[in-house]
Write a structure and sequence with these properties.
mainly alpha, 2 helices, Transposase, IS402-like_dom
Length: 45
């Protein structure tokens, strides 16, 4: 885990507030992995 990465407890709280994961979507362009996007944002901050 890097400096800006979310802990498991933090991720459990946030994951329900974010867009649905790739496996639950219909057609169209699949989203990137939500957790890695959030970790990247925190790293840049």
């Amino acid at each position: 885990m890097s400096r800006g990465d979310l802990t498991e407890a933090e991720w459990r709280i946030l994951k329900d507030l974010l867009p649905i994961e790739r496996k639950n979507r219909g057609r169209g362009r699949p989203p990137e992995q939500n957790r890695s996007i959030i970790n990247g944002i925190l790293w840049r901050l």
